[in-house]
Design a protein that fits this description.
single chain, 193 residues, alpha/beta, 6 strands, 11% strand, globular
């Protein structure tokens, strides 16, 4: 099987961050992780993460919350570490949560194939650190990160989160994918070879 990635480009994002949503959900700036995407392909990876004693100890010991876009069932002892958003987020609310988070956590399963993560592209455009569960389709984008973007397991993610303070400029060479016409040209040249 050959995987051909179709470039989408990086959209310009105009944001007017507001702290109102942070007050509403009870989070402080840069004291939470945000997992904005919740679809069926990521449930197992996300549940494993949220049920992990190691991950929950990291959250508790560092005074960090995990903000999720919908309610999931987790152990009662872990619920103080989580904020569940069960409402529609406006564009400004969504981008405010993205802007003020420590990092974005993108959990995708192995059945997430032949697609891109819009959230990852938003992170790249906004220069926001994103950690992505290892996935063959998304591996091609790791070359644009100046840090280890993917994680294979909970322990690896926690280690990466502990080192987040050392990441000053998370992305490089984004001009290669910023304009989709450049990507299409590269794709066609390589495909024809």
């Amino acid at each position: 099987h050959q995987v051909i990635l179709i470039p989408h480009g990086l959209l310009n994002i105009s944001v007017s961050p507001t702290e109102n949503i942070l007050e509403e959900v009870g989070c402080e700036k840069f004291k939470y992780l945000f997992s904005p995407s919740m679809n069926s392909t990521e449930k197992n990876v996300l549940y494993e993460l949220c049920e992990s004693p190691e991950f929950n100890n990291y959250l508790r010991n560092n005074g960090i919350k995990m903000v999720l876009r919908r309610q999931i069932d987790i152990k009662d002892e872990y619920t103080p570490n989580y904020v569940f958003i069960n409402k529609y987020l406006s564009k400004d609310e969504y981008y405010s949560l993205l802007t003020y988070s420590n990092a974005i956590i993108i959990c995708v399963g192995n059945n997430f194939k032949y697609r891109v993560s819009g959230t990852l592209f938003e992170c790249m455009r906004m220069n926001k650190v994103a950690f992505v569960s290892r996935n063959e389709t998304l591996m091609d984008y790791t070359k644009y990160a100046s840090y280890k973007m993917t994680f294979d397991n909970v322990h690896e993610l926690v280690s990466q989160l502990e080192d987040i303070g050392h990441i000053s400029d998370p992305y490089k060479n984004l001009e290669e994918i910023a304009d989709p016409t450049i990507g299409w040209n590269t794709l066609l040249i390589n495909y024809i070879k």
